[in-house]
């Protein structure tokens, strides 16, 4: 199946495509590297993982790269210019989630680094929690973000167990910020969605 970018309204084939994206992403959880696909290699980092998943599902997102200092920012620039980023809630499964300030990209010890991380929305949980799959800390894993309760890491349930709604996304290296500022919600920038359709040959 050949998929191409579709620049007007969303097509009926998108649901099938994005289900495949999420399936591939979930099957990758636990991997310590991003595998090659038919001889095509991908970097073992967050953008390499997203490229791998989308490429495996049928499209090469590098085709829409714009200008940027790295893969995440170049990809964001390309889809932002096409109007494919949004902040409405909730997102759809398989959509992209962008973050700022997840590490000190310019090494100036300040939180002023835009577009440092990316993941794939994989599902939803309690209290409006969003699950996302990404490559971080040397492996593919699924984490959580909750924009309704941005300052909360977890809720205590009736059985006494904690239900995490915001995973920690940045390592605290003694920078002087409060614990809540290292949660996924603190770094959220926006969502993104690439409209696609099946090309008939």
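Sequence proposed for the structure above (201 residues):
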């Amino acid at each position: 199946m050949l998929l191409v970018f579709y620049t007007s309204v969303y097509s009926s084939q998108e649901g099938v495509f994005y289900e495949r994206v999420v399936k591939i992403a979930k099957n990758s959880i636990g991997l310590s590297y991003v595998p090659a696909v038919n001889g095509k290699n991908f970097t073992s980092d967050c953008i390499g993982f997203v490229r791998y998943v989308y490429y495996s599902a049928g499209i090469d997102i590098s085709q829409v790269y714009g200008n940027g200092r790295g893969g995440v920012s170049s990809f964001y620039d390309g889809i932002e210019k096409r109007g494919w980023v949004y902040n409405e809630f909730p997102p759809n499964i398989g959509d992209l989630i962008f973050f700022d300030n997840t590490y000190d990209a310019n090494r100036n010890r300040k939180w002023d680094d835009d577009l440092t991380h990316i993941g794939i929305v994989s599902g939803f949980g309690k209290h409006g929690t969003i699950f996302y799959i990404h490559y971080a800390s040397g492996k593919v894993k699924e984490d959580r973000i909750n924009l309704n309760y941005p300052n909360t890491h977890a809720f205590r349930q009736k059985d006494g167990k904690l239900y995490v709604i915001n995973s920690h996304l940045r390592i605290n290296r003694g920078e002087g910020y409060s614990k809540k500022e290292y949660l996924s919600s603190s770094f959220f920038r926006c969502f993104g969605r690439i409209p696609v359709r099946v090309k008939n040959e």
